[in-house]
Amino acid sequence: MQFDVVIIGAGPSGLFSAFQAGMLGMKSAIIDSLEAVGGQCSALYPEKPIYDIPAYPEIISQNLVDKLYQQAAPFSPQYFLSQQVVELESCSDFFKLKTSAQNEIQAKVVVIAAGAGSFGPNRPPLENIETYEGKSVFYLVTNRENFAGKNIVIAGGGDSALDWAISLSEIADVSIVHRRNKFRAAPATVQKIYELEALGKIRMVTNYQLDGLIGKDGILEEVIVADLDGNKKPLKADILLPFFGLAQNLGPILDFGLNINNHHIKVNYPYFETNIKGIYAVGDVATYEGKLKLILTSFAESASALHHAYSRVFDGKALHFEYSTTKGIKR
Ligand SMILES: Cc1cc2nc3c(=O)[nH]c(=O)nc-3n(C[C@H](O)[C@H](O)[C@H](O)COP(=O)(O)OP(=O)(O)OC[C@H]3O[C@@H](n4cnc5c(N)ncnc54)[C@H](O)[C@@H]3O)c2cc1C
Questions:
Q1: Last residue of a domain, which of 244, 263, 288?
Q2: % of the chain with per-residue pLDDT over 90
Q3: Cα–Cα distance list, 26 to 22, 106, 134, 311 (Å)
Q4: Which of 9, 47, 56, 138 is 20 to 30 Å from the Cα of 231, by its Cα?
Q5: Which residue's CA is the nearest one to ligand 1's atom 42?
Q6: What is d(CA 114, CA 100) in angstroms, rounded to the nearest whole number?
Q7: Domain harbouring 129, CATH code
Q8: Residues 253-270: what's their mean pLDDT?
């Protein structure tokens, strides 16, 4: 668990930082709270075309992420996914990081590429919901066959809620709970939902919201829903899938002793170093005068930060600058 560089965040800035670290001969680790790399590009708009990436007149957001991942691959960065960095401690000439999965990682340099913070699901405010999470309550579906034959309550009115309702109605008993009777999903999806309701394949519980969970030892039996006047009713449920979108929160990073300005980390230009020597911040999370929050800006920030970090990683050795064309890459 000892690295030259540890990168917090596997969005576009984190992935490009791993590439830059590799080009400079540094061994890197990347940590992300999401289970996949890509940050906002993969979590929020994977299918949208991006038009302002140099040399790509148009590129689908997820394709950009895939290419950044491939670009870093020759240097074998070690990925620690599905875990949040919860503690950072400065030691004499290295940093110690702890993650929510109890991993302890040490590195000489830290690059914070945390965007607007860790992604996590928007949890409905239901008493004891955490005791059901991972057993009966899930915020994403990794394998729909796990839910075959179950009574499933899906909560939410957006694309994820309705897409999964359509898919799961083929193999399970599905109810959709939504606090309005209008949905925010694509019109074709909404139409399909009404067709499935007419065929008796989906139960619509609209103008209701989640109110409580009934069950034992994390095994759900009923979901209680309430209308706007507070009238409650139970829905038979083995599984609850709340789809209320993803929230981003800087969370523990606010306690690392860094200069924070309005949920961003202040860095010096042009090295992107924070007030703590050896900790850099790049991408959306970094702020300085004239900052442009764009992916292309973050690439240059990563390159500058890692070139600056070189002498710290290699115990004072001066960097002999070389182009990538000169250096090449061993595959
Ligand atoms: C709809 C939409 C369209 C956009 N279109 C464009 C565009 O056309 N062109 C453009 O240049 N930009 C665009 N952007 C902005 C672009 O996506 C961001 O600038 C970019 O994603 C920032 O990259 P990042 O790596 O700095 O942060 P992010 O992509 O936010 O990634 C940060 C990662 O860090 C992780 N993280 C944070 N804290 C922790 C922690 N403590 N522990 C573990 N992991 C942590 C998060 O889970 C996240 O995965 C768009 C954004 C949106 C929402």
A1: 244
A2: 89
A3: 5, 14, 37, 11
A4: 138
A5: 84
A6: 16
A7: 3.50.50.60
A8: 95
